[in-house]
Amino acid sequence: MVQKLRWGIMGCAQIATGSVMPAIMDSETGMITAVASRGLEKSSAVAAEFGIDKAYGSYEELLADKDIDAVYIPLPNHLHREWVIRAAEAGKHILCEKPIAMNSEEAAEMVKACNDAGVHLAEAYMYRHHPRIAELQEIIASGEIGELRSIRGTFTYNDATDTSNIRFKSAWGGGSLYDIGCYPLSAARLLFGAEPEAVTVHAMFSPEHDNVDMMASGLVEFPKGLSLIFDCGMWAYNRQLLEILGTDGMVEVPMPFNARDEDAEFFVHTGEGVRRVDATGANPYTREVDDFAAAVFTGKKFFAPEDAVLGMQLIETCLASAKKRERISML
């Protein structure tokens, strides 16, 4: 019989109800014990929708529930630090939405709290758990596209008319770098297997949207002359793409961050022509929660929480570069 991780859901955001909660229910290793919101009416409605026995009108009640092993935190970015630390103190394992914090100092404090409490902490970059990522890494390692030279990543969408959106609240960790720029930034660190040396970012800060960065474009310098060229935006035409460039070829990855079952293909360009690879399809959210449970139950390799601190260092440096309009070294 498969051991089940008993989840508590801390908040009823759309990412929870639309993606993560269904994934837990479809997973081999998870079950949802309770859901909480700041009001019992909302959490009760979500609990009824998903057939969950317990609904709480406060996060404190959820953390006090001894039938919960782990919590998923989809709260706005500025609340991550407080509730990750409080969950750790309550002895709960934690899957926290990306980006994990407002800055690297907060992230380091959260990691320490979880290490001190002996609980597992993970940042919810679901795309890293899609089987396609491992297949891309295999192609890079095989040398088929030669030595790596550069990665180009794009992630944009247009939701600018919804000015009440929490992504447009500066004090809450709003802006395109926090929301979606973090994806190509994390992908480059993962695929290069290295940490950046410097960044130069230009951004459009919008007074209509609490002066968050509604569009950002940048160059991230990695060791050995490698680079990431990226752009991200919440006030631009919808698009996603990842290009991995080598000396002898290139890998083109459509839908690099949201792919599931039917849209996991990618294309390898070399002197021999273009080869389509129908990568293994999967729900990355389900893979994420199963991988998380494996880390809790067996210690199986998962992304170390310290990785989240390094990721936050890159995000905050990109934002600082955009505000100062200058290149910033990370060495």
TrEMBL record:
Sorted UniProt keywords: Oxidoreductase
Domain GFO/IDH/MocA-like oxidoreductase: 134-252
Gene3D superfamilies membership: Dihydrodipicolinate Reductase, domain 2, NAD(P)-binding Rossmann-like Domain
Gfo/Idh/MocA-like oxidoreductase N-terminal domain: residues covered: 5-123
Pfam family, any one: GFO_IDH_MocA_C3
Origin: domain of life: Bacteria
InterPro entries per the UniProt record, alphabetical: Gfo/Idh/MocA-like_OxRdtase_N (IPR000683), Gfo/Idh/MocA_domain (IPR050984), GFO_IDH_MocA-like_dom (IPR055170), NAD(P)-bd_dom_sf (IPR036291)
Family, similarity comment: Belongs to the Gfo/Idh/MocA family.
PANTHER family assigned: OXIDOREDUCTASES, TRANS-1,2-DIHYDROBENZENE-1,2-DIOL DEHYDROGENASE
Protein name: Oxidoreductase
Natural source organism: Paenibacillus odorifer
Lineage: Bacteria, Bacillati, Bacillota, Bacilli, Bacillales
